Amino acid sequence: MNWDLMNFLATSALTIAIYGLQRSHEKEREQMEVEAQKKAVAAEIEVSVDDEEFDEFPMRKAKIKT
Q1: On the CB side of 33, how many CA atoms lie within 13 Å of its CA?
Q2: pTM recorded for the entire structure
Q3: CA dihedral sign of residues 23, 24, 30, 33
Q4: Could you give the 3-state DSSP secondary structure of residue 29?
């Protein structure tokens, strides 16, 4: 086999492997971002529900005799 052909094949194989690894890493990172957004939305909804419950049952002011 010719050295130029071997170099071309090796370079091509490494390029494809690096591209595949990079794409895999990007997908993993995107998935982590989606999970973080879901957690943030869930936490925001939980706080919102707590606020609504608080407004629904306001504390009664104590009557102080003076």
Answers
A1: 6
A2: 0.54
A3: negative
A4: helix
Residue 48: what pLDDT? Answer: 64
What is the C-alpha separation between 27 and 20, in angstroms, rounded?
Answer: 11
Both tokens of 36, joined, read 């973080």
For residue 57 the two structure tokens come to 């049952």
Spell out the per-residue pLDDT of the chain, length 66, in tens: 799 999 999 999 999 999 999 999 999 999 999 999 999 888 877 766 655 555 555 555 545 555
Residues 55 and 50: their CA atoms lie apart, in Å, by: 9
- Give the three-class secondary structure for 62: coil
